[in-house]
Amino acid sequence: MESKSFEVKSNPELWEKLGMDVARFSAMPPMITAAYQKIFLSQKDRPKAMAYFDEMVSEVHSGRIEELVKAKEEGHPVIGTFCVYVPEEIVLAGDGICVGLCGGSQGSIADAEKILPRNICPMVKSAFGFKAGRICPYFQVVDFVYGETTCDAKKKTWEILDQYVPTHVMEIPQMKRERDKALWVEEVKDFKKAVEKITGKEITLESLQQATRKMNAKRMALQRLNALRHHNPSPISGRDMLLIQQIAFYDEPQRFTQKVDLLCDELEYRIRNKVSVAPASAPRILISGTPMALPNWKLHNIVESAGAVVVNEESCIGTRYYKDTIEDGTATMDDLLGRLTDRYMKIDCSCFTPNEDRIDQVIREYRESGAQGIIDYCLQFCHTYNIEAVKLRQACEKQGIPFMAIESDYSPEDVGQLQTRVEAFLEQIQG
Ligand code: SF4
Ligand code: SF4
Q: Using a 6 Å cutoff on CB, does residue 84 contact ligand 1?
């Protein structure tokens, strides 16, 4: 797409109907337009199939919201979530729509800080601030939200969020012993019952199988895309990959899967014809750690503006969302729920202890992606990822893998300092 013709569209009438603070929110689309033009549309040799994802950004506050409003009118409830542990398959099987509501914007932090303490993770503050300030159309459109108990900041915030929008909470175990798995199965069954109650529709074996296939297809398309981007030289930038993985949380799953597959076809063509976004000599970086919710593009922009390519995101907005699928085939409802819970228990969030699987997974992805260094990204005040970085560093040192840990937030204040650190790290990698 031509940079000049790109625009994040506005729809004040729709926002008004959704009870938003229209005057304040009107400043958001022009801000995202400017950032998107600078960070994404200035890139050279982008795959043509990125046009669809540009369009999704252009429609993020208008066309996609209109689709969700229409779906609600047709009897499909919209459920907001904050964590990849909340099983989307069950929402789909109940004829509902799942949207990710994690916040990645500095713009809503001040709204949250009027109510919540300042010294908590910016993702929680950003998400809460969107609702408190009525400045996110997704938050306004959801019928209710489903939080979880992964970390302290989240689980206590849900108690306050419930005063603004009906907020249910799933208990996610913190360990992976048999008794923890048994608790998780019960939580999933309760979640199924809650979705059935809200949608007024029984989730049958057939509807759950269909939803499982739909989500498996989506996750497999993302796996295929991630494997293709590992090629050296990279056929797609890390910035574009991050964007696609962010859009995965608000787009319609079937359409999204088709578009990802089309992009994969183009990347295969590019690989055959040696079309890339950076030379093969460009340093290759894996980013691990806390998820980067839309529109958090800060670190990818810094790394790629310094001449490197991000070749993998070990993150929930990354491989943790799609590395595992649910085994298909003949099953009873109990079998299928068992397979579903097994799949979800493989998510190696740092809220678990012990969590050696994640350390192994990061190293595995480092090797598979052909990365030359790991930058571990942690949001300020996220204790679990921050402390787990110690073990990751130890594992990297043992295996001679260049490693750097950074802690940041959504403000632009540390950009200069991060640029200097990233450049020094890239020099170290290149020897
Ligand atoms: S990092 Fe943990 S808490 Fe956050 S989305 Fe992933 S699994 Fe959920
Ligand atoms: S980044 Fe860390 S502190 Fe923030 S919501 Fe996720 S797990 Fe909690």
A: yes
Strand partners, 47: none
Q: Whose CA is nearest to atom 7 of ligand 2?
A: 151
Atom of ligand 1 nearest to the CA of 351: 2
CA distance 216 to 222: 10
The answer to whether the CB of 134 is under 6 A from ligand 2 is no
Instruction: Quote the ligand 2 centre to 136 CA distance (angstroms).
Output: 20
Q: pTM here? A: 0.98
- Ligand 1 atom closest to the CA of 150, numbered from 1: 3
Q: Where are the beta strands (DSSP E) in 299-372?
A: 309-314
Task: Print pLDDT tens along the chain (431 aa).
Answer: 667 799 999 999 999 999 999 999 999 999 999 999 999 999 999 999 999 999 999 999 999 999 999 999 999 999 999 999 999 999 999 999 999 998 999 999 999 999 999 999 999 999 999 999 999 999 999 999 999 999 999 999 999 999 999 999 999 999 999 999 999 999 999 999 999 998 889 999 999 999 999 999 999 999 999 999 999 999 999 999 999 999 999 999 999 999 999 999 999 999 999 999 999 999 999 999 999 999 999 999 999 999 999 999 999 999 999 999 999 888 899 999 999 999 999 999 999 999 999 999 999 999 999 999 999 999 999 999 999 999 999 999 999 999 999 999 999 999 999 999 999 999 999 98
Residue nearest to atom 7 of ligand 1 (CA): 349
The rounded distance, in Å, linking the Cα atoms of 42 and 67 is 29
At residue 255, φ and ψ (nearest 5 deg) are -65, -45
CB atoms within 10 A of CB 144: 15
Name, in order, each residue with C-beta under 8 angstroms of 64's C-beta and a sequence gap of 6 or more: 56, 250, 251
* Residue pair 185/341 in contact by the 8 Å Cβ criterion: yes
Atom of ligand 1 nearest to the CA of 123: 4
